[in-house]
Amino acid sequence: MKPRIGVYVCHCGTNIAGVVNVEEVTNYAATLPDVVVARDMMYTCSDPGQNTIKEDIEKHGLNRVVIAACSPKMHENTFRKTLASAGLNPYLLEIANIREQVSWAHFRERDKATEKAKVLVKAAVAKARLLEPLEKKEMPVERSVLVIGGGVAGIQAALDLAEAGLKVYLVEKSPSIGGHMAQLNKTFPTIDCSACILTPKMVDVANHPNITLLAYSEVVKVEGYVGNFEATILRKARYVDEDLCAGCGACADACPRKVPNEFDVGLGKRKAIYVPFPQAVPLKYTIDPASCLYMKYGRCKLCVKACPRGAINFDQKDEEVKVRVGAIIVAVGFKVFDARKIPSLGYGKYKNVITGIELERLSNASGPTGGVVLTASGERPKSVAFIQCVGSRDLNHNSWCCRIGCMATLKQAFLIKEEDPDAEVYVCHIDMRTAGKGYEEFYRRLREMGVRFIHGVPSEIFEDADGKLRFNVFDQTTGHMIELKVDMVVLQTGLEPAEDVEKLQKMLNVSLSPEGFFLEAHPKLQPVEASTRGIFFAGCCHSPKDIAETVAHASAAAAKAITLLSKGKVDVEPLTASVNPEICSGCEVCTGICPYRAIQLMEYEGRRRAKVIDVLCQGCGACVAACPSNAIEMKGFTEKQILAQIDALTGG
């Protein structure tokens, strides 16, 4: 069929027309071979713009469409739907990016930008003439989801998915779900009890019929593709039979071995057989083999004698379970910056220099001091200085803002002033960032309570003979150097990517940002989706967030997974690589270079030849470029099509 091409050049308001002479480009497009219609439009993606395209397809018998506008990332799917609704194959579309690649790149060079736009339109038309219809395939999906991480993000996502009728496997590496939120005392800006908010949700997870909770477990392998992933999960031995354990605590009472409690950030002690905190879910005891006297030295077993239900089982082994799921939500959270990396602040050297998370545990009723903030000598501090941005907004460590430090300090300062209104509280900051609902009002409230805010950060902290902590700080607001002597210094440490991130990134074939957080497919249009289809991100593993934003992000990820799986099938994009087995030599270069593991060797007429698994292929083209036999071709980006574009761009 002879090509009949319609070209539509978008003004995009002034985004394009402010630099490119759109009318001139349109007139030029009308002269190109096989172009039947050429129009300039104010907003091509708008309803009037799309309706014009549909009318032209019917009126002029168009069988190819070229859009000269913004990046295909923005509106390619929009215009594909436009073509489909007009009865035209949606893949008979080509987009010339004259916004990002022309007007935004050459905003001071109108004449040159216009000429470049013409050439890009010429190349798009040259390729459009050779486009062929492509068809999507459909594949059945597993109506189940794997959620990796049992903090508040994973909990929220799991509950949303389960309520939508999907089967959920929630995997948490710790003995209990809850994550960092479980360690907190109160939440800002409402000063609600953190446990009162979180614990009911934890219990809901344990009791929901659609959720299988796999605590004290880790995902060790993921294979497959969107709709049909297979995950291998390592269930670590608790050495306690979960079905028999009633969580009574008799075993812990009998255990003679005490070690630092990780949940209390080392401030308190726990037994070798333990639950992390009183509200743990599941409330099942776990034996720490590195601390247990019997497992280390072959003596003790007092827990066995104390357990009334015979739940202790030292013969228990790690086991692997496999689950099939249609989608995966990653919600592995974050880790806290190690303040020891900044020795001048005295953390780890002076006992009364603590971190924000340590203050949370001291102020928590289930913490090591029963909810009373005490100095190392066991006294209530009469003066406390908070130091902001420890490890954050610092080119020597982490350049990004942790997003929660300012409000966490305000909350903790409030708790200290609430307990002792006469306590002197200082906040040393780079600047205060209180952007959120009710946040600025809370900041104002703290100023009215007498908290003193100093616009500056100290260079070094010293401890005097009387145990007081002393440092100088230059207040940029007053222009004066201030010397402070306080009973306690609290370092508000920033958030960093979780320890599991790189391992998961390789396992799931997803991308990381330069900072090490998981990278979304598009910051505006796909903020919870990975570049690998069927995988979603929730919470602080994506970027630092407060609790409210984390919950919203988790619900968004769950909604996307529900949308993906709700039909019981998924479309497979046809823009994939294909191998000509007659030419393929079976050299395996393509299998090694494919970042999505989408190419496998198969038997073909008695020989091993490469074959592309369409549903795994993301259309990156790496295999096409690498193939020494020229046996692989990209649908929608064939060699003839690319060469036609090159000829157009080079004046051929």
CATH class of the largest domain: Alpha Beta
Neighbour order of strands in the largest sheet: 10-7-6-18-29
Largest pleated sheet: 5 strands, parallel
Q: What is the β-strand count?
A: 34
- Report the β-strand fraction as a percent range: 15-25%
Total domains: 5
Low-confidence stretches: none
CATH topology of the largest domain: FAD/NAD(P)-binding domain
Number of helices: 18
What would CATH call the homologous superfamily of the largest domain? FAD/NAD(P)-binding domain
N-end to C-end Cα span = 24 Å
Shape: globular
Residue share in helix: 25-40%
Gyration radius, in Å: 30 Å
Secondary-structure content class:
alpha/beta
Assign the CATH architecture of the largest domain. Answer: 3-Layer(bba) Sandwich
**What is the typical, i.e. mean, pLDDT?**
95
